[in-house]
Amino acid sequence: MPKPWATLGIDLHLEPAGGGVRRGLTDALRDAVRTGRLAPGTRLPSSRSLAADLGLARNTVAGAYADLVAEGWLTARQGSGTRVADRAVTPPARRPAPTPSRTGHPAYSLIPGTPDLASFPRTQWLKAARRALTAAPNDALGYGDPRGRIELRTALAGYLARARGVRADPDRIVVTAGFAHGLRLLAQLLHARGRRTLAVESYGLDAHWDLIERAGLRTEPLPFDASGTALDGLERAGAVLLTPSHQFPMGVALRPERRAAVVDWARGSGGLILEDDYDGEFRYDRQPVGALQGLDPDHVVYLGTASKSLAPGLRLGWMVLPPSLVDEVRALGGSSVPVLDQLTLAEFVTSGAYDRHVRAARLRYRRRRDALVAAVAARAPEVTVTGIAAGLHAVLRLPPGTEQSVVRSATWHGLAVHGLSRYRHPTATAHPVDALVVGYGTPPDHAWTGTLQALCNVLP
Amino acid sequence: MPKPWATLGIDLHLEPAGGGVRRGLTDALRDAVRTGRLAPGTRLPSSRSLAADLGLARNTVAGAYADLVAEGWLTARQGSGTRVADRAVTPPARRPAPTPSRTGHPAYSLIPGTPDLASFPRTQWLKAARRALTAAPNDALGYGDPRGRIELRTALAGYLARARGVRADPDRIVVTAGFAHGLRLLAQLLHARGRRTLAVESYGLDAHWDLIERAGLRTEPLPFDASGTALDGLERAGAVLLTPSHQFPMGVALRPERRAAVVDWARGSGGLILEDDYDGEFRYDRQPVGALQGLDPDHVVYLGTASKSLAPGLRLGWMVLPPSLVDEVRALGGSSVPVLDQLTLAEFVTSGAYDRHVRAARLRYRRRRDALVAAVAARAPEVTVTGIAAGLHAVLRLPPGTEQSVVRSATWHGLAVHGLSRYRHPTATAHPVDALVVGYGTPPDHAWTGTLQALCNVLP
Question: A32: how many CB neighbours lie within 10 A of its CB?
Fold first, then answer.
């Protein structure tokens, strides 16, 4: 129960908090001023009289007053005693409108972009974290190389060369807080070099286009035709963002002659190719096509991420830069990636745990894709699964004019799924296509069968 | 030993790598093209003849050719067979000039800005990480709230209100990858609002000024006088960056009447105060002065960090925003802070491990400061330790004209220490002062006595 403390001049209810008498008195007085119970200009009793009233040592009260003068709640002037400062009452902070809660959390989700989070290798990750933190030298915990820890850059150089044909050198790798962080740095760099346009694909993520535009670059979509992304109009741009191994979300691979042509363009014009290799680990029908970067490491920035192979929540990505860009990217600011996570991933890769996890995930996702293709063929003959057998998502072509109604029907039945239209660049010229982008990697294993069933139920 | 394989038309040394015969052949051919051993335009033997030559199945060779066509190394045209693509040979990537190694790593360091990294609570941190990861729901591993995890924002709101007098609400807290990350977001926000000037203190970190200027804002230093940072000229700026509790590096606290005046300015003009509370946990002579933010949470952004209380390598910081800024900061991009670290810090704070660590650190640093003050008084009567008893650094005033020679002498004797001049804003009008900025928090415990000795040896 609060103890009412009457003072000589004013009637105060001081509720002493923990942390010592002086601290409690300071907090209580501050609170009284803050909430307006003590109005601005109010003269406080002398420390002697308040101390007597409260049964405290005078020094305790004088100390509390001094604290609050130092903080600006009270003023002390020779001859006029201690008063509540004029500006002390602040209008109550307005709370922002509450974030709309995810009302009616759907029972099933096929939203693409996230792997099966239930299969995140928690035990192995913790084991790697323990090993990494135990082995880390003290100075690893300080401010480090803006490119990231050398242990991780070395592990990634080996892994990327082996698994993705990337020509990687630890000196040219920059560890990022995920793909978007790397893209932001590169957009800033292009802007600083005087570029004002970045060519993008007709289909992609609006979050990426937004961040490019926030850096001061216009996004100009390349045409998308029956063979995938075409390169007409590239000459007007100084750089291009591509998903060559597995177009997101359309799911096709960039054709060999276009791979060649884009590299030729970059060489001839001094252009830069940003290669978004977001799911290069996951190809099911053959060896994955090597990274475009291997063709010309002087004109291609390779961007990879652990968001699909492990989990987005790790916020870990990497860029392999042309030599000429390393210093510029470095100058854009220190690494914002925690050292412990970097060391943990390095340990995870070098111990072989990363390969084991990716192999197991590849098998799981491949089975899901096969089941999806079979179920669609059996249950919805008007729907076609398009794109190569790769990644964590598939595009389901729908009969013309049905996309919106299928998405609405899915929502109604508790299934979250995205239509293709939301991935279409606002100024894309490609003929709109009705389709679903089905993230079959998203559900946990136990929900997969039910989710697939729910999808089939809403397909036309 | 590489096995020499002669083919019909060309003489190839294919060194099969691990990963299966087709993979090995693909890698070896790619390497031959890449390094120029197979020149652009060279026609390769038919898959049948190369297969016969190598003793492989024809399909294996055809598959390897197809892979390399898909990657763009080879071209296959009806009637002209398979050839090495024209653009295949890239000039060897130029390695950037090697980073200058820290030649002659100094034996002792008093560079400020880093706590004693040897005392990082590794065991407790790992324990918190294990608990946090074990308890985390699966969806915590996905893309989350751009403000950061609610567990950490709630823990911080409680801690900051209790320890620093911050008026914090989890809804208005944004978790950052350290102070610099928050400052960058705020500078971008100010720029987007049309501000072009940010007032700063005459003394501070050039890395901060640089990042403000990269966001398009001019930094304009406030005067620094005998009472610390003065506010003249503030009216020309729309916002000000301050270290009110412990000016960095000068070590004074902002005087009460100036605390009041800066809040009055912000209220009257709609200005914004960025409060950098980098070492608020460490005050040795009294209760720390509460955060300026408590006086007016609608006009002050409070910025804190775990870089001094735990370790910079964690890359963890936080901002408490006025309600009007929350959505704007959110729109600047997703949180780039790994979920596991956020959950670990939340567990660390709520379990009481953070308070225990800070209390132990406070005692350790206080002893070091006392020893520093005593040693300087005894050994260098011409030198004065200035600033309040707080934080992880002290300013040692030197006789006029001696700063550079003392820093040089220290370097010569294996002691890394910074002169005050490097912390002076290039356009500051304050009269230059000769001093050292001594980061007594930096050395590990075992090196402290030797480091202090080394410092005393070079003082005039």
Answer: 20
